[in-house]
Fold:
Amino acid sequence: MVNEMSEEMGNEMRNEMLNAMNSQTNTVIKSDLALLAPNKSFSEHLPIRFEGIHLAFAKRAIYSNLNLEIGAHGITAIMGPNGAGKSLILRLLAGLIQPDQGRVLYNGKSGLPAGQIGFVFQRPVLLRRSVQDNLLHALSLADVARVERPYRSQALLELGGMEHLARSPARKLSGGEQQRLTLLRALAAKPGLLVLDEPSASLDPQATALIEKIVRRASQCGVKVLLVTHDQGQAARLADNVMFVHKGQVHPVQPTGSFLKQPASREAKAYLAGELLID
Ligand SMILES: Nc1ncnc2c1ncn2[C@@H]1O[C@H](COP(=O)(O)OP(=O)(O)O)[C@@H](O)[C@H]1O
Ligand SMILES: [Mg+2]
Structure:
């Protein structure tokens, strides 16, 4: 009981702190545009639609006839219990796995817009090199001209508040720093779509706030963001709308405020009340 109470108080304080930090950053900074605005506009590839997706592993169906639509604007949060199928939706739409049946369409076309998706996985995967070298490598993969790379890497480090760590081995960073570097690395290619799978799941409030700040700035620069999160405070701070996933089915997208106050389905209500943790 005591533990539960202190955990609840902890969450409340955490959210208060994060909300206060949130209100400080709401203007688009010009230099951010040069650094983050997508190379090619992504809006022509939206909406993203799944049509009749079937996917099974060893005969266990994960999706049977999954249909969904992710619209054009802002940050979309994907929420739902563990095992609901959130991460697989991200993998399908990024073309990292193929469905057994059905199609993933970008504004009606099935070809995936090459090089325009930045993906941040649940666990950071960094090269065994310095922080700076991880960014320089990503910039080189993104075909950024060699002369431009040091400037861009420096600007990304500044965006992430990581200048002082430029020469540190990336794999020796703290969890929060590694996740931030992974996010900066995903943004190095100036993607039109940023896909984040629980990017701050095990991070403290400060580390979470830094991640949220970068995501918000990318969104303000025109990057479409998809974010899997279990954190209702984070959804409230960042997301324009929420897609709820339960047992391989997607419920209609709702604006974040109304989803959190009046979820449209019984399952979403139970999930938000903490009654639907594992399916
Ligand atoms: N490569 C795989 N092989 C077998 N089962 C998988 C694989 N990937 C995911 N699954 C199963 O698919 C379901 C949905 O997974 P996932 O999308 O990762 O859920 P979550 O909503 O927690 O992100 C889970 O039951 C998971 O165990
Ligand atoms: Mg997942």
User: Anything to note?
Assistant: The radius of gyration is 19 Å. The CA atoms of residues 13 and 205 lie 9 Å apart.
